[in-house]
Each structure stands twice: as structure tokens, then as C-alpha cells.
Fold:
Amino acid sequence: MDISNRRPNPNFILNEPRYQGARILLGRRNFGCGSSREHAVWALQQYGIEAIIAPDFADIFQNNALKNGLLTIRLPDQVIDKLFQLTFASTQFMLSVELESQMVVDTDENTYSFELDAFRKDCLMRGVDEVDLVLLQSNKIKAYEERARISQPWLFPDTRLKTFDGDR
Structure:
């Protein structure tokens, strides 16, 4: 069925009006298990999710998430349980993430700190991925290739001696 003709499932929790526009997703243990391709991350991002908070994540999912700019935050089971209870108890409950200070803040200004690898944090803060980081070095890469072309010309097809192919 064409997606434009599909009615959203009213029983799906994220289709409830109170969750419309939510950008933070709460999850349980081993979030992302079975999602070994980037498509799971892309689907969450296309839905609008920017961060997932859970006790732990499947390794492949977490790597794919961070490489694609989706923040994964690990908080203890007890904190996750509390956040779920608060979410269900009030339609006004909200969470925010302060990436720079590595804090999750709730409506009542309770804070929960989280750990994040410095490299991944830098990438998320700057809005870059690993490919962007390589492209930022393009001048250095070009200079290296020019030096290598001179010192090792046999590695570069366009500098090899041309052979006679009979087309004169």
C-alpha cells in the first residue's frame, strides 16, 4: 500500500498525540538487537528521533547510530524505569539532552549524567561523520598524492608509459 494512503496505527504508542514531535526515545535493555544495518538508524532519524536513552545497546546498532549522528545514551535500569513512570504519569513530562555537559534533564530539572566517547561527542557537536573528517583533510591528501606521484610513478596509471595500441 502507498504510504500516503496508510492510516497510522492508533494502538502504536508513538502515534499518541502526546508523543508527536518527540525527538528522544526511551528504550529498554539491548536496544537495537537484530538491527545490524544502518537502515534501522536511518528509519529512527527519518521519524525525527535524535537521541535514544536505554540501559544498553546492541553493539552494531550503537556503532551505526553514532556514525550516523544518532546519540545513544546509557543510563542505569533504575533511572530508565523512573523516566518511564514519569512519562506515563504526566502528559507534560519532557526530557532534554545537553550534549556539551553530557546531561539528560527532565521537566522537574532532575539531571542524569551520561558518558560519551570524546571522539563521538566531537563529531556530534560539530555535525560531522567520519567521511566529513576525511574530506576536511583533502588538501593534505592531495599534497600527499602529488608527492607520491613523483616518488612512485608506477602506482599511478596516468603517469605510466603509454604503450603502442595500434591506433595511430
Summary: The two ends are 59 Å apart (CA to CA).
